[in-house]
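Section 3.1: Structural characterization of target chains.
Under the original work plan, the team committed to producing a structural model for every single-chain target entering the pipeline before any wet-lab resources were allocated. The record below documents one such target. The sequence was received from the expression subgroup and is listed exactly as submitted; it comprises 254 residues.
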Amino acid sequence: MFPDLTHRKRETEWMDAPDADPVELARSLKFIRSVNTLFGYTRQTISHLQEFSKGWKQGEGISIVDFATGSADVPRAILRWADQSGFDVRVVGFDLHAATAAIARQLERDPRLSIICASALATPFDSGSFDYALTSMFLHHLDEDDAVRVLREMNRVARRGIVVSDLFRNRRAYGWISLFTLAAGPMVKHDARVSVAQAFDEDEVIKLRDRSDIRFAKLQRHFGHRFVLAGERKRPTVASDPAVLGEAGHAAAC
């Protein structure tokens, strides 16, 4: 049966619990990585960076921060794309959940990727520390006020632009994810349904954008009941600071 999706149905996802079962947490993160690859959700984010890259100078270093990085599959995909495209990209991914950050570190290692623990509501970075700020499938974990705080924080630390991807709340998305997770573990089944039920609809996303003063970010609908808020400001005059990325690994212990 479908819940009433007229309004957001707020509920804590099991993977967010500090004492989340490590086996189920690892299984849930693996499922997310598989879905992101299978349905092209990671490519959605990269497609916006590819558009931004038309304004990058040859040999220019590009710095990116990934809010609530999970197991950091999006940053790793970005680095593979950068290799293929000939771009010098480095990424800092952070997550508040210590066990999740630990899993991210245990996967494929890349010296251009740093994983730290930090809160998306108050990051340890100075204003304009990065060229771009990204986040994927994170906003729906938050209430409206905290979602605005995160978007403003992304806007603060990013000099050039942001890419925010998440899912829409609707009955078709709820039905699709219910079918798709029938054979999954209990955490995946629970959190997948909760994710859709507490996601935002299109009007709510626009209101969040406007409250966050990021009207330069345009809303685009994507396959699989997903959306992306993405936009870029005018080209900055300050170059990326290598020290920010070099010291990011020491910003927080987890």
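Residues 151 and 212 are 6 Å apart (CA to CA).
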